[in-house]
Write a structure and sequence with these properties.
Layout lengths: L9 E5 L4 H12 L3 E6 L4 H6 L5 E4 L5 H14 L5 E4 L14 H29 L2 E6 L12 H21 L4 E8 L12 H10 L8 H12 L10 E4 L6
Parallel strand pairs: 1-2, 1-4, 2-3, 4-5, 5-6, 6-7
Helix pairs in contact: 1-7, 3-4, 4-5
Length: about 240
């Protein structure tokens, strides 16, 4: 499983075991990429999805040593890294007055700090090759000021801003950085949203139906591919037509 086929592009996907990350794994494998799937644990389903040359790497974003070890191991073993999809994250809901500082710090650790740290190690390989595409998965929660989204929304807003800074700084090395900001996606995380909030979100949209992990994975793949080679620093909303 660990043998790389010469000439195949290599992509790293975090949060690869389920939801958007798992859909992205399948999308990239289908299009002939070698996938380095990062997840907190292995699963038979993920192993089966990777093909003959993919691999799984254990990554716990709550543990800084795990982040550093995983990133270094991948960067050391690869001659090239063509794409990085920062897809891992956690949800959190509570009112501003009820949000504990420990919870706020934990959400930021997972959704921002560890993602930045991981990317810092991986991007060194991209800089060596003067090419690469990074896609950060943010959220419309980082755009709209909805009640109960202090921790999650703030972490995603910060991640979107970090995406634009990364694009500004890394463009000189031929590296593109873009973000995807979906609204509620039909995943385990999306289904954690309470019914009232979900209904209010749905009322804003001009298009009806569900946003699937595959919808998001298709956009991620476009941003990683040469089809978007002149696009960088963008945060693309996938929200069924919510008004600004």
């Amino acid at each position: 499983m660990n043998e790389i086929q010469v000439g195949k592009p290599v992509v790293i996907i975090t949060g690869a075991s389920r939801g958007i990350g798992f859909a992205a794994v399948k999308k990239f494998v289908k299009n002939g990429w070698t996938v380095r799937a990062c997840a907190r644990k292995e699963s038979a389903e993920l192993i089966d999805s990777l093909g003959d040359d993919g691999s799984i790497h254990i990554l716990d974003l709550a543990d800084e040593s795990s982040v550093v070890h995983c990133a270094k191991a991948i960067a050391f073993s690869e001659k090239r890294i063509d794409g990085l999809v920062n897809c891992a994250g956690i949800a959190h809901g509570s009112l501003f007055s009820m949000t504990k500082l420990d919870d706020l710090q934990y959400v930021f650790q997972i959704n921002l700090f560890s993602q930045i740290l991981f990317s810092q190690y991986i991007v060194k390989k991209m800089i060596q090759n003067k090419s690469g595409s990074i896609i950060n998965v943010s959220s419309t929660a980082g755009i709209f000021a909805d009640s109960g989204t202090l921790a999650y929304g703030s972490s995603k807003a910060a991640f979107s801003h970090a995406t634009r800074i990364m694009a500004t700084e890394l463009g000189a090395f031929g590296i593109r950085v873009n973000g995807v900001a979906p609204a509620k996606v039909e995943t385990d995380m999306g289904r954690m949203m309470d019914e009232k909030s979900s209904n209010l979100l749905e009322q804003r949209t001009s298009l009806k139906g569900e946003i699937t992990p595959e919808n998001v994975a298709n956009l991620i793949y476009f941003l990683a591919s040469s089809e978007s080679k002149m696009m960088s620093g963008q945060i693309i909303r996938l929200d069924k037509g919510m008004p600004f």
